[in-house]
Design a protein that fits this description.
With 314 residues, the protein is α/β, with parallel strands linked by helices. The chain contains 13 helices and 12 strands. The protein has 2 domains: 134 residues, Nucleotidyltransferase, domain 5; 153 residues, Exopolyphosphatase. Domain 2 (Nucleotidyltransferase, domain 5), CATH 3.30.420.150. The strands form 2 sheets. Strands 1, 2, 3, 4, 5 and 6 form a 6-stranded mixed β-sheet that branches.
């Protein structure tokens, strides 16, 4: 009986402490944000300043390939789930140590899986409530974070690609992890292109009007920009100074293929993306050509800033 009362008291105290943390965070406009993606788990602490702008510490990333096998099975596999949950727990401990609430959202891999509820329950057991975004919500939050809600965006993730321009919003189940699985049986660059372009043609839709007013988002596009700049160590802020054009992108695709698997694994800049950067670049080739983009601006701001604004108020 006494043990039961003690457990109840501890639970009540934990609830009170959590409420205090969330109240303090809302007053100070500070929180931790976690993006549960198809290729990686991303995490950063951020705040909303007096002008209503979101600012974040450098984003931390752990490559967990949550979507691995999803294309074939339609379900999240156990090993990728465990990798992801371990990363999520480590990030959550950091947020709790800072006394910050953690707002977690999941995108394509969880959204499209048959066992999404089971994954979310396991996350909840670690103390995290996960919001599963629709494709349209994902695109809108990316636009909010990157451009303040104006202009078009092209966002290539691990499991999906978002295209937004004006009232046109489209999310398609093709990203660098899924494209990698399409390329596994290919024996040449042309075969890889045929496989990726065929799926892109099948699932992607574009606005009726062509436009240059797009900003490219996501780790694939940032890494492509960094490679084009000749970076030795990945610096996403500097990568934002790059504009991606068709000719340079085609040359990069040829170079990435020529490296082979061993060569890509030897590139420090590609750590965690050795197997997905080339398929992801092929998606970008297709998207830029069909969206009518000659040169693509790049941003390191994305749905994480957008979600921070959404949760703590604009």
């Amino acid at each position: 009986m006494q043990e039961t009362k003690l457990q109840q008291s501890i639970a009540q105290m934990a609830t009170i402490c959590a409420k205090i943390i969330f109240r303090r965070a809302n007053i100070l406009k500070q929180a931790a944000i976690m993006d549960i993606g198809s290729n990686s788990i991303r995490y950063a602490c951020g705040r909303i300043d007096e002008a209503g702008r979101a600012s974040m510490e450098p984003k931390q990333l752990r490559t967990t390939r949550l979507a691995e096998g999803l294309e074939e099975k339609g379900r999240l596999a156990e090993v990728p789930m465990m990798r992801s949950l371990w990363a999520m727990e480590a990030f959550a401990l950091d947020a709790h140590g800072r006394g910050l609430p953690i707002y977690a959202y999941a995108t394509s891999a969880v959204r499209d899986s048959a066992n999404r509820e089971a994954f979310c329950r396991r996350a909840e057991a670690l103390g995290m409530e996960v919001t599963v975004l629709s494709g349209e919500e994902e695109a809108r939050l990316a636009q909010l974070g990157a451009t303040g809600g104006a202009g078009g965006i092209l966002d290539i993730g691990g499991g999906s690609t978002q295209i937004l321009l004006g009232d046109f919003v489209h999310s398609a189940p093709i990203g660098c992890v899924r494209a990698r699985e399409l390329c596994m049986a290919a024996h040449s660059l042309n075969e890889m292109k045929r496989a990726v372009f065929a799926r892109c043609k099948e699932v992607l839709r574009f606005p009726p009007q062509k436009s240059e007013a797009y900003t490219g988002l996501g780790g694939t596009i940032l890494t492509i920009a960094a490679l084009m700049m000749g970076q030795k160590t990945f610096d996403p802020e500097k990568a934002c100074c790059m504009r991606i054009c068709h000719t340079a992108l085609d040359e990069l695709v040829e170079w990435l293929y020529s490296l082979g698997d061993a060569g890509r694994h030897a590139q420090p800049l590609l750590a965690g993306r050795e197997e997905t950067i080339l398929p992801g670049a092929l998606i970008l080739v297709f998207v830029m050509a069909h969206a009518g983009v000659g040169e693509l601006a790049v941003s390191n701001r994305d749905g994480m800033e957008g979600y921070l604004l959404e949760r703590l108020g604009r």
